């Protein structure tokens, strides 16, 4: 899943599959945005999340950004990214057991984030208050967390290029606190209407609606209002 830009997202969607009920969390006083970039982006904050992260931190105090360390290479081997996400969550909680965490991932970074979910259990699971994914190659049809670029349902029932009946995808207990944004026609997450790395796959950073929805979603998760 190529990627030189990144993406941002928004609102909640309805689905034919039921999502687990989740307890409303209290507002976070300290939090970390763990940002996992896409293929080809230089080590650092993904271009797709810079604006939304800046907006979130201006609205909710106590925030910091951690940029997942991994190659983000064209080999699409994101295993080291998954390990770094899991390790970083542990480091954060050892320093502050009450810290809140938001996971963000674009394209290959979204795949690495999805793979980390099943390894984040107990206190680590509880600490993650929300997950934001863009152009997710493991996007699976019918999940309640699936939204399009407007927070709607046009990509509710599509599959990504790495999704199959045999792939785990987003675990059921994570669906209620995940927003899996797939731009209609993005060939990485929407193989029904698009093919491969196309303009739709690179649209996330430039979309005003996605930026606004993304900010609102994360702020709501941190404040315990969403």
From TrEMBL:
Pfam families assigned to the protein according to its UniProt record, in alphabetical order: Cutinase
Point out the signal peptide segment: 1-18
Q: Which UniProt keywords apply?
A: Disulfide bond, Hydrolase, Signal
Keyword Disulfide bond attributed: yes
| InterPro entries, A to Z | AB_hydrolase_fold (IPR029058), Cutinase/axe (IPR000675)
Which top-level group of life is the source organism from? Eukaryota
A Gene Ontology molecular-function term? carboxylic ester hydrolase activity
PANTHER family from the entry?
Answer: CUTINASE 4, CUTINASE RV1984C-RELATED-RELATED
What is this protein identified as? Answer: Cutinase
Q: What residue intervals traverse the membrane?
A: none
């Amino acid at each position: 899943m190529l990627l030189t830009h990144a993406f941002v997202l928004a609102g909640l969607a309805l689905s034919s599959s039921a999502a687990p009920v989740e307890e409303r969390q209290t507002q976070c006083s300290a939090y970390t945005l763990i940002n996992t970039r896409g293929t080809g982006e230089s080590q650092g904050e993904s271009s797709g999340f810079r604006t939304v992260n800046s907006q979130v931190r201006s609205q909710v105090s106590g925030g910091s950004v951690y940029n997942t360390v991994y190659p983000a290479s064209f080999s699409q081997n994101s295993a080291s990214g998954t390990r770094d996400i899991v390790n970083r969550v542990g480091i954060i909680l050892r320093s502050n057991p009450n810290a809140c965490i938001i996971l963000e991932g674009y394209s290959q970074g979204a795949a690495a984030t999805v793979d980390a979910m099943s390894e984040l259990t107990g206190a680590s699971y509880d600490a993650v208050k929300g997950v934001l994914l863009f152009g997710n190659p493991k996007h699976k049809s019918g999940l309640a967390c699936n939204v399009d670029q407007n927070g709607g349902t046009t990509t509710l029932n599509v599959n990504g290029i790495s999704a199959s009946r045999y792939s785990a995808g987003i675990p059921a207990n994570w669906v209620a606190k995940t927003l899996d944004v797939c731009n209609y026609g993005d060939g990485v997450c929407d193989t029904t209407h698009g093919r491969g790395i196309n303009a739709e796959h690179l649209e996330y950073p430039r979309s005003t609606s996605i930026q606004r929805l993304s900010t609102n979603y994360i702020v709501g998760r941190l404040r315990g209002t969403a």
